[in-house]
């Protein structure tokens, strides 16, 4: 048998060979068009700059209007200037964005699934008209304030409190690990009240609202995470999301964000695999490309096996979401598996790159670092494991 080494510069051919199960053929023309449009945006606008942004710990806030024009902000939402695309189309967009960087995909998730999704699902008509068109265009940025210093995996123990004072609400408390707040104009803040957990749209320049950027970080450096402090922050009655009561409000948004991660993690994994494959085809040692060695081929094969399985899982979950049959347990399974496997792929890809693998010009080390954050937020491995455990046994192990 004669060797015919694949061309490392023919990325289309490498991707076709890696799609062993023919998953691409299961996508509709519209779905492929969305994917290809977002992929081209990532190639043109993210890849040339992402290593520098990561190195400088800089979130490129100037990308927000461009992402609005791309149609990925509030992508699944209908009306109010939102794109109204399918769940699978959004998933494919999330995959391509995270192939660029987890921080950029996270921005799209916080803006669209968490902040815009909460307003779209639970807000008044006036709130929707005021905020959603500008947020969909990337003209206004929103944050989502749920996690607290002492309430991460257990949001029911939040202590931030909003009390009525005349016609107004007064909010006191703290939030932590809140994406985007330092560059946002509004935050959807969840707080305990005498009537249970409620949501509020709070301007980030409100008196008593203090925002601290959490840094330095070793992960998600091209993103921004913050701590929030509310010292008697007063908002009018019109700031209340009228249709949200209890934890169902924030949890509905979290499920949408977790859905995006099911797809997004595949992007980080795929990009890491492709970087390793192309390097292995170019790099020669002992008189031959390292792609021809058995141990390297095993690593590449293991990566593709998990990427193909993860893609089938994401597509099944996406089709269920579009059909209206998706359950939170299914999202937990997808998030747990795909993030866990993507981390292993990024780490293994780094080994194929050898010493050059620690340079930011090569993506696996950056993806591996970012995925440690993705593994933690929107539910840790432990939380999703216990969600699935309760589903299987009928017994809650949370308390």
Trace the largest sheet across and list its strands.
2-3-7-6
3D shape: elongated
Number of strands: 9
Distance between the termini: 61 Å
Range of strand content: 5-15%
Please give the radius of gyration in angstroms: 22 Å
Oligomer: single chain
Number of helices: 12
| Uncertain segments | none
* Biggest sheet architecture: 4 strands, antiparallel
Structure summarized in a few sentences:
This protein has 399 residues and is of the alpha+beta class. 51% of the residues lie in helices and 15% in strands. It has a four-stranded antiparallel sheet, with helices on one face.
What does it look like?
The chain is built from twelve helices and nine strands. It is α+β, with helices and mostly antiparallel strands. A four-stranded antiparallel beta sheet has the order 2-3-7-6, covered by helices on one side. A three-stranded mixed beta sheet has the order 1-4-5. Strand 4 and strand 5 (196-203) form a beta hairpin. The termini are far apart.
Strand and helix layout:
Elements: H1 11-18, H2 29-46, H3 50-56, H4 64-70, H5 87-100, H6 102-122, H7 125-136, E1 142-145, E2 161-165, E3 168-179, E4 186-193, E5 196-203, E6 209-213, E7 225-236, H8 248-282, E8 284-285, E9 288-289, H9 294-323, H10 328-352, H11 364-376, H12 381-393
Parallel strand pairs: 1-4
Antiparallel strand pairs: 2-3, 3-7, 4-5, 6-7, 8-9
Helix pairs in contact: 2-5, 5-6, 5-8, 6-7, 6-8, 8-9, 8-10, 8-11, 9-10, 10-11, 10-12
């Amino acid at each position: 048998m004669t060797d015919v080494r694949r061309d490392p510069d023919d990325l289309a051919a490498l991707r076709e060979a890696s799609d062993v199960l023919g998953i691409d053929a299961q996508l509709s023309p519209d779905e492929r068009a969305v994917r290809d449009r977002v992929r081209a945006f990532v190639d043109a606008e993210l890849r040339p700059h992402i290593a520098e942004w990561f190195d400088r710990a800089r979130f490129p806030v100037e990308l927000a209007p461009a992402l609005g024009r791309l149609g990925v902000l509030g992508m699944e939402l209908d009306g109010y200037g939102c794109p109204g695309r399918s769940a699978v189309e959004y998933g494919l967009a999330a995959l391509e964005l995270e192939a660029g960087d987890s921080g950029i995909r996270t921005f799209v998730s916080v803006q669209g699934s968490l902040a815009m999704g909460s307003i779209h699902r639970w807000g008044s008509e006036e709130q929707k008209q005021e905020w959603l068109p500008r947020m969909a265009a990337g003209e206004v940025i929103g944050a989502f304030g749920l996690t607290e210093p002492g309430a991460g995996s257990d949001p029911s123990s939040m202590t931030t409190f909003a009390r009525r004072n005349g016609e107004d609400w007064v909010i006191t408390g703290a939030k932590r690990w809140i994406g985007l707040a330092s560059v946002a104009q509004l935050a959807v803040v969840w707080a305990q009240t005498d009537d249970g957990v409620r949501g509020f749209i709070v301007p980030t320049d409100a008196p008593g609202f203090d925002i601290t950027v959490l840094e330095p970080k070793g992960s998600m450096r091209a993103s921004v995470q913050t701590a929030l402090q509310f010292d008697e922050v007063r908002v009018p009655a019109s700031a209340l999301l009228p249709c949200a009561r209890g934890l169902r409000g924030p949890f509905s948004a979290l499920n949408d964000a977790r859905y995006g991660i099911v797809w997004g993690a595949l992007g980080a994994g795929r990009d890491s695999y492709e970087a390793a494959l192309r390097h292995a085809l170019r790099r020669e040692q002992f008189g031959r490309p390292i792609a021809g060695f058995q141990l390297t081929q095993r690593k590449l094969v293991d990566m593709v096996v998990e990427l193909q399985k993860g893609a089938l899982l994401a597509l099944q979950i996406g089709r269920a979401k579009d059909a209206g049959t998706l359950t939170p347990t299914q999202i937990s399974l997808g998030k747990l598996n795909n993030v866990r496997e993507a981390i292993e792929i990024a780490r293994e890809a780094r080994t194929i790159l050898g010493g050059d693998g620690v340079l930011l010009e090569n993506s696996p080390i950056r993806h591996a670092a970012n995925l440690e954050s993705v593994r933690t937020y929107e539910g840790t491995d432990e939380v999703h494991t216990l969600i699935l455990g309760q589903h299987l046994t009928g017994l809650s192990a949370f308390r």
